[in-house]
Target: SurA N-terminal domain-containing protein
Amino acid sequence: MLGKTVKVVAKPRRGTRGAVSPRAARMVLAGAVLAGAVAGCGDEPIKMGAAAVVGDDRITTAKVDRAVLDCEKQFKADQVANQVRTALENQRQQQPTSGEPADCSARSAIDTMLNIEVAAAAAKAAGVSVSESQVDRMIGLMSQQAPAESIVVALGMPKQFTRDVARMNATQGLILQRLGADGNAQSPATLQAQQQALALFRQTAGKLDIKINPRFGSFDANRMTVTPITTRLSATESGVR
Model:
């Protein structure tokens, strides 16, 4: 997981599956390891109804809207997801560079959907194949102290994306191993593998020619994430609804 950790201090109410441990919390960030690093954008307008375009494929605004609505509903009903998100926010306040806030937003959904698409393409480029059993094992790791579905909801996606997120996490791990990571987050070999993995994902994203609908923001190359729209032009003036 490229060495990122989260310290969880929240305790569950009665009836939950137990406190979310730091080990489980580390899994929370697995899906965000390369978050934003793969999200590109172009200057050309994209077709109406698309939140983003990945090569010839569209991520529709309807799919993004549904993901946001489902996530919001599931988050309200999931105590563990609330605890995990609180832990993420606490860490972000203590370490501002630890990442963007986790929430059920369109930007968060688009980021994750793009990461899923690019991870699959990067796996092919790296000669990595992720089996269903490896996805199952990743879900098992995520679920050791907290339900994997709750972790995914805490990260800002509805639970029906759990296998997609787990596959992305497993893909990232296998790519790091292929590049020489040795399991020690601070070792020179792992740090070098991290940089190579980031380069691979950026290169893969560039080849996929990813574009983002300006309604949802723009790509910040420095922060490597989709940032809120700053232009004064309305959706109509920018040519995209």
Notes: The chain has one domain: 35-77+103-148+157-238. The beta strands are 50-54, 57-60, 211-212, 218-220, 225-227. The CA atoms of residues 91 and 221 lie 23 Å apart.
